[in-house]
């Protein structure tokens, strides 16, 4: 049995980063169902994120998305977050919502468009300087829809050039993290479709370039924990964008579709000592709450991650190694399944109580009245949303 004090300490130190966009209105290309009380700007999003941290104690950072979270004074935003007991985390760039990007951003055949996209990425690094953020997250919608539409290799050269310029601009302690996604919005080629492509670019750049695994960005059946292991072995896992997918890039709550997959991923993370913040792996959520209430949706997601982490920490590593060495196929599998089938909710509730947190963050938040308060207070202005 793993030492319970070690398990509890690991759980206490584990941190989960929240996406600002999860607090704003979002939807599908069919309809955005607006909700009352949603934040109208990045400052109010930080207030909502702070609520999630208040009740869970493990979510002290909020990632921002530029320009969705554009403000006049980023240092003031960081100070506001600090006053609420959280910090501004990863800065996510957006080079996919401008008419100029119809044929791509940094891979666009037109050098003027490439310059514009690069200028935005560099502006994001300026923002990191002001907010004290470590990571710039890059996700590109770049790709083509038809064979022959553009030169596949030339697009890779343009990508490499832009990445190198961003890399050059990074300050000490700053990193770029590159996200891949197999398809959408382009359907014939995507310029960074998989972890191999992302890794190849990051390896060419150097130690401050790492790969992000968004759990929703894979084809059905892909063994994500294998990818995680490969990236950890290479020292190139920058972080996660957690969510659940039933079909494609659904951005549904992490742990909803396949909690067992989440456990298997976390088992590899724990196995390779990458859980602690000092490992440099960011555990971020990348979700949209289209029909469910947003703050409770984030709290539930944080709890789902914690449950997977707790189960992963409960794997008896010694027993597992012994079974593996002995070639005991079923015995090794049983060690894993014993941990997965443990009900860790009482353990997590006890741990929260010990650290002065409510045993059930979800219910405690609902009972707090904050949800009703924001509906009353946030009248007027334009609700923030990603404009689907
Ligand atoms: C992308 C990707 C990015 C996110 C955008 C909104 O599919 O997952 O991480 O910033 O969506
Ligand atoms: Mn993502």
Which key features would you list for this structure?
single chain; alpha/beta; 14 helices; binds beta-L-rhamnopyranose; binds manganese (II) ion
What does this 3D model show about the protein?
The chain is an alpha/beta fold and 388 residues long. It is built from 14 helices and ten strands. It has an eight-stranded parallel beta sheet with strand order 1-2-3-4-6-8-9-10. Helix 2 (42-56) crosses helix 9 (294-313), helix 2 (42-56) crosses helix 13 and helix 4 packs parallel to helix 5 (152-169). The longest helix is centred in the first third of the chain and has 21 residues, at 111-131. The site of beta-L-rhamnopyranose has 9 residues, from loops. Residues 65, 92, 139, 179, 181, 214, 241, 249, 286 line the site of beta-L-rhamnopyranose.
Strand segment tally: 10
The unique ligands bound to this protein are: beta-L-rhamnopyranose, manganese (II) ion
- Strand arrangement across the biggest beta sheet: 1-2-3-4-6-8-9-10
Order of helices and strands: HEHEHEHEEHEEHEHEHEHHHHHH
Give the terminus-to-terminus CA distance. Answer: 49 Å
Determine the structural class based on helices, strands and strand pairing.
Answer: alpha/beta
Q: What's the tally of helices?
A: 14
Characterize the largest beta sheet: strand count, sense, and whether it forms a barrel.
8 strands, parallel
Helix content: 40-55%
Q: What general form does the structure show?
A: globular
What is the rounded Rg?
21 Å
Contiguous runs where pLDDT drops below 50 for at least 5 residues: none
Mean pLDDT over the full residue set: 97
Strand content range: 5-15%
């Amino acid at each position: 049995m793993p030492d319970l004090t070690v398990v509890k300490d690991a759980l206490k130190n584990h941190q989960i980063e929240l996406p600002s966009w999860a607090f704003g209105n979002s939807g599908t290309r069919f309809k955005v169902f607006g909700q009352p009380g949603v934040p109208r700007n990045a400052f109010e999003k930080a207030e909502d994120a702070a609520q999630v941290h208040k009740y869970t104690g493990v979510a002290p950072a909020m990632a921002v998305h530029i320009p969705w979270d554009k403000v006049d004074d980023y240092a003031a935003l960081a100070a506001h977050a600090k006053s609420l007991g959280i910090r501004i985390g990863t800065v996510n760039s957006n080079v996919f919502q401008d008419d100029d990007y119809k044929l791509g951003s940094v891979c666009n055949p037109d050098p003027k468009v490439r310059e514009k996209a690069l200028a935005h990425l560099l502006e994001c690094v300026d923002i990191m300087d002001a907010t004290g953020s470590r990571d710039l997250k890059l996700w590109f919608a770049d790709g083509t829809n038809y064979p022959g539409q553009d030169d596949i290799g030339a697009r890779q050269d343009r990508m490499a050039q832009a990445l190198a310029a961003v890399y050059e601009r990074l300050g000490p302690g700053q990193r770029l993290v590159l996200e891949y996604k197999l398809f959408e919005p382009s359907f014939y080629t995507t310029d960074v479709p998989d972890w191999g492509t992302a890794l190849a670019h990051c390896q060419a750049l150097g130690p401050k370039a790492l790969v992000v695994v968004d759990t929703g960005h894979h084809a059905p059946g892909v063994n994500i924990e294998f990818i995680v292991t490969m990236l950890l072995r290479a020292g190139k896992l920058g972080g996660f964008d957690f969510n659940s997918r039933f079909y494609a890039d659904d951005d549904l709550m992490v742990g909803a579709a396949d909690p067992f997959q989440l456990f298997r991923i976390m088992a590899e993370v724990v196995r390779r000592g990458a859980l602690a913040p000092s490992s440099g792996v960011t555990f971020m959520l990348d979700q949209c709450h289209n029909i469910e209430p947003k703050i409770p949706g984030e709290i539930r997601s944080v709890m789902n991650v914690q449950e997977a982490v707790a189960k992963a920490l409960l794997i008896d590593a010694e027993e597992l190694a012994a079974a593996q060495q002995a070639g005991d196929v079923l015995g090794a599998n049983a060690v894993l399944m014993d941990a997965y089938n443990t009900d860790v909710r009482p353990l997590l509730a006890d741990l929260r109580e010990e650290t002065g947190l409510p045993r059930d963050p979800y219910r405690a938040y609902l009972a707090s009245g904050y949800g009703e308060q924001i509906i009353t207070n946030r009248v007027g202005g334009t609700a923030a949303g990603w404009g689907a």
